[in-house]
């Protein structure tokens, strides 16, 4: 018996509700020797998991920087528009199709076997991003450990890693040389600095702050280039191992363990953010940063770059096409209101990004006040904002170690959710694809995957790891994600059919989506994705890390990394066409564009009306 049948073909036992249906499925599968698939214990577990997955490091460092770069408050207009026309429709689509089928990114493509490579592409992207995303978590853990001190180590220049160019912020701008052997306010030397024990006049162009040197020469121990990886940074090695232990502890029991963890990891960042916002608001000059953040520069709206940046930020922050949303929604019960979730989660994600901007820019305003600079001269992009600018500001605060601990704890809770969402995408997909072999051994399999990802991440904790990190971050998940999302739309709305999809949603929610959603899915959203792809192609530049120029070989490596997830799509399609075995090429393609007999509503769905068929395993 197949999953999708008409109600006339077979009568099934009467089931009162979803819980009873789940028990029936569990006992049926147990009798067959296959461990049943899990469900979220509570709806709140799913919502918090989606919120944690969507709200990641980019909400703290990328969104504020984009606001600064693209006209402050004016950036919110294209951001919200792109959220409505592109982000939310994709989010709703993935939640609905995954909840209906109860299938992970691989099993989902029974809907269109020809494009099963799209599911493999999602797994490849998630696996590659897991490698370098956990490196950010590694840096955060390293900073957190070093914060437990009487004085944060990035506040002084009298350390073994400092150079002659190191300058403490207070000394440079206020003539406070309490940590230097100065004689007249113009001479200096940093006692305890083994790399510089000379005295002399302060150079006018000193720009290496203590926090900058801690980041380069302690946290990274940065080498001269990507061709000089150097040895393992053992501090980062153990931090990386601890990061993967955290991920394993969160996901080793599947959604049951994740559902418990997210109550802390998805909510605590808001507590930390609120505490930091209150503290930052009391700092002198904080209003300068906030004013810069919210003051709109309307002329920027005429620049196409701002729309390009807004679309990418929405796309990457919400997480469609990564496979994570499909994975999490596949554990929902059949009657869950996925439409409501598709509105709530993007709204929370949007508001969190805006709220995080206030936290970051208030402290940037403080730094501008302390250093007598303009706000735009203090803003940094990406890791520099989190690991240089913000720690430097913390070093100027009373009780600096306390605020450092709170800040880096917040980053850990933000990063862990997104990381185990991507990791669960990989493990659940493999387990669903090979249930008889893997489902009963889920914990050892998850442990093996954690170990594999840990080993693959070791080159990124070498002294040249920051260069590899830049390559990973630059090439993975840009054009590939847009292509995957576009193929999803083509498969679901043009091959499977918009009417079928609307009927599937009606069977879950009891009503069909309106014309707005049809217009978004069939016209506006795919057009937006095409424009984003064109924009990426036109505006693409080679990776940048300060003044370092990456050699051609590293660029080839980057393109290979970024292309794997796309290349697997035609490879899998060709393999499946070959395996069909009968008929002409076009006949095989047409056959593979039809849903397989195994496609249909998830096994525990329950009918509340004659239009829905209750499907239970034969």
Automatic annotation (TrEMBL):
CC per GO annotation: plasma membrane
Predominant location category: membrane
Signal peptide start-end: none
Example GO biological process: amino acid import across plasma membrane
Region (Disordered): 1-36
Domain of life according to the entry: Eukaryota
Keyword vocabulary terms for this entry: Disulfide bond, Glycoprotein, Membrane, Metal-binding, Sodium, Symport, Transmembrane, Transmembrane helix, Transport
Location(s), subcellular: Membrane
Family statement: Belongs to the sodium:neurotransmitter symporter (SNF) (TC 2.A.22) family.
Protein name: Transporter
Lineage: Eukaryota, Metazoa, Spiralia, Lophotrochozoa, Platyhelminthes
């Amino acid at each position: 018996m197949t999953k999708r049948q008409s109600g006339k073909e077979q009568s099934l036992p009467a089931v009162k509700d979803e819980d009873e249906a789940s028990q029936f499925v569990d006992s049926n599968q147990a009798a067959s020797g296959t461990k049943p698939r899990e469900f979220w214990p509570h709806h709140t577990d799913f919502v918090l998991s989606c919120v944690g997955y969507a709200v990641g490091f980019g909400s703290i460092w990328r969104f504020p920087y984009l606001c600064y770069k693209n006209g402050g408050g004016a950036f919110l207009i294209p951001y919200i528009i792109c959220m409505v026309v592109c982000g939310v429709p994709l989010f709703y689509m993935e939640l609905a199709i995954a909840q209906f089928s109860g299938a992970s990114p691989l099993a989902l493509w029974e809907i269109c076997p020809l494009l099963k490579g799209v599911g493999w592409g999602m797994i490849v992207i998630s696996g590659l991003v897991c490698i370098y995303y956990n490196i950010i978590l590694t840096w955060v853990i390293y900073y957190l450990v070093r914060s437990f001190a009487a004085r944060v180590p990035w506040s002084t220049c009298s350390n073994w890693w400092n150079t002659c160019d190191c300058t403490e912020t207070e000394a440079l701008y206020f003539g406070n040389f309490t940590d230097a052997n100065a004689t007249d306010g113009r001479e200096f030397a940093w006692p305890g600095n083994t790399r510089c024990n000379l005295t002399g006049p302060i150079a006018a162009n000193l720009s290496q702050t203590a926090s900058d040197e801690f980041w380069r020469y302690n946290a990274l121990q940065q080498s001269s280039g990507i061709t000089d990886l150097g040895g393992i940074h053992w501090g980062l090695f153990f931090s990386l191992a601890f990061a993967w232990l955290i991920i394993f502890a969160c996901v080793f029991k599947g959604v049951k363990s994740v559902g418990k963890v997210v109550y802390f990891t998805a909510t605590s960042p808001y507590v930390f953010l609120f505490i930091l916002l209150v503290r930052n608001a009391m700092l002198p000059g904080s209003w300068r940063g906030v004013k810069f953040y919210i003051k709109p520069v309307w002329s920027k709206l005429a620049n196409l770059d701002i729309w390009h940046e807004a679309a990418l930020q929405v796309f990457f922050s919400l997480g469609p096409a990564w496979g994570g949303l499909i994975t999490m929604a596949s554990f929902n019960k059949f009657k869950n209101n996925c439409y409501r979730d598709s509105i709530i989660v993007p709204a929370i994600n949007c508001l969190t990004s805006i709220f995080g901007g206030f936290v970051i820019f208030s402290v940037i305003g403080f730094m501008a006040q302390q250093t007598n600079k303009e706000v735009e001269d203090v803003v940094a992009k990406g890791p520099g904002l989190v690991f240089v600018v913000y720690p430097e500001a913390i070093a100027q605060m009373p009780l600096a170690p306390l605020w450092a601990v709170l800040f880096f704890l917040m980053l850990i809770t933000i990063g862990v959710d997104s990381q185990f969402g991507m990791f669960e995408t990989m493990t659940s997909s493999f387990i669903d694809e090979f249930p008889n072999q893997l489902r009963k051994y889920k914990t050892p399999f998850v442990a093996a995957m954690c170990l594999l990802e840990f080993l693959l991440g070791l080159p990124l904790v070498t002294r040249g790891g920051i260069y590899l990190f830049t390559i990973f971050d630059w090439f993975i998940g840009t054009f590939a994600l847009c292509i995957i999302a576009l193929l999803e739309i083509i498969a679901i709305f043009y091959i499977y059919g918009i009417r079928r999809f609307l009927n599937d949603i009606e069977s879950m929610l009891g009503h069909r989506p309106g014309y707005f959603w049809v217009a978004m899915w069939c016209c506006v959203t795919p057009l937006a994705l095409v424009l984003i792809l064109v924009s990426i192609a036109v505006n693409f530049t080679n990776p940048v890390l300060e003044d370092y120029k990456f050699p051609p070989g590293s660029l080839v490596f980057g393109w290979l990394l970024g292309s794997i997830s796309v290349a697997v799509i035609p490879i899998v399609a060709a393999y499946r066409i070959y395996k069909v075995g009968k008929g002409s090429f076009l006949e095989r393609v047409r056959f593979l564009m039809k849903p397989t007999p195994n496609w249909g509503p998830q096994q525990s769905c329950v009918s509340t009306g004659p239009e829905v068929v209750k499907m239970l395993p034969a």
